[in-house]
Structures are given as C-alpha cells and as structure tokens.
C-alpha cells in the first residue's frame, strides 16, 4: 500500500456508483468543493470524512490511515442468531484457518504480489471471523448469566 491519502480519497469517490453530485449532497458540501478537494486543490476537512465514506460506502481511506499509523483495521461484524451449532461453527473456523495457513505457507515458499494481496485479504477475513466468534461467545455467555 504505497498510495497517498489524496489518492485514496479520489479512488473512494470515483469507485462509487454514485455521482460526485450525490456524494457531495450526502457529505454536506457543494459538488464544486468536492471536485476541488479530490483534485488536491484544497484539504479535505476531517469532520466530513465519515459522511464521505458513508456516502460512498467505501472505507479504504480509513484502512489507509490505519495502515500508515501501524494499526490493524477490522470491521466488527454484526452477530445475529446463527443457524450453526457451536460444534459446526468451530469446525468451519478450523477449516478456514487451515486454508489461510496453507496460503501463508505457499506465499512464504514462493512470494508474489498477487499472493501477497490474497494472503492479506485472507488474514483480514480470519481476523473478522475471530471477532465474530468472540462476539458470539460473549453474547451467549451474557445470556447465560441473565437467567
């Protein structure tokens, strides 16, 4: 990830299915001002970053900031009632972890840029799955305490 913050802002806006006018409206700024910010003509105000990302439904800017500051960014998944029982959930988690470990070993043996991006994405998915299971355990444990 050698991209600039300005580049990520630009990609976020122009990768959206919405027009610049729609994004500007949902962000609470004029379209001309948004065009100017995206072209580097002025700074992007921090207080408009969250509405901008929400309008675009794209959080690459947040990932970029986290990466540049040495942080891991993982979206906290929503946990609803699962149709899987706990044993099946553990088996699925183990299968996913095994696949990620195999991918990691393959990358270490024969690194390439494509494999690098795939393993990073797979590791992020595992982190997300780990948090999902953690939330499920916390929720189930909390329910048990209430009875």
Question: What's the name of the CATH homologous superfamily of the largest domain?
Answer: lambda repressor-like DNA-binding domains
Summed up, the domain count is 2
List the total number of helices: 7
Mean pLDDT: 87
Descriptive report:
The protein starts with a helix and ends with a helix. It is mainly α. It is built from seven helices and no strands. The chain has two domains: 64 residues, 434 Repressor (Amino-terminal Domain) (Orthogonal Bundle); 61 residues. Helix 2 crosses helix 3, helix 2 packs across helix 4 and helix 6 packs antiparallel against helix 7. It is globular. The mean pLDDT is 87.
Keywords, separated by commas or semicolons:
mainly alpha, 434 Repressor (Amino-terminal Domain)
Summarize the structure.
Helix content is 69%, strand content 0%.
Give the SSE layout.
Elements: H1 5-15, H2 20-27, H3 31-38, H4 49-56, H5 60-68, H6 86-109, H7 113-146
Helix pairs in contact: 1-5, 2-3, 2-4, 6-7
């Amino acid at each position: 990830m050698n991209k600039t913050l300005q580049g990520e802002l630009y990609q976020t806006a122009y990768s959206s299915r919405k027009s610049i006018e729609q994004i500007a409206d949902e962000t609470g700024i004029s379209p001309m001002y948004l065009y100017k910010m995206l072209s580097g003509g002025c700074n992007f105000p921090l207080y408009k970053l969250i509405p901008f990302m929400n309008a675009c439904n794209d959080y690459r800017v947040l990932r970029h900031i986290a990466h540049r500051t040495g942080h891991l960014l993982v979206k906290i998944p929503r946990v609803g009632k699962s149709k899987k029982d706990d044993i099946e959930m553990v088996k699925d988690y183990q299968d996913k972890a095994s696949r990620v470990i195999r991918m990691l070993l393959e990358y270490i043996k024969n690194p390439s840029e494509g494999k690098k991006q795939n393993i990073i994405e797979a590791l992020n998915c595992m982190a997300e799955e780990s948090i999902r299971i953690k939330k499920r355990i916390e929720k189930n444990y909390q329910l048990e305490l209430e009875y």
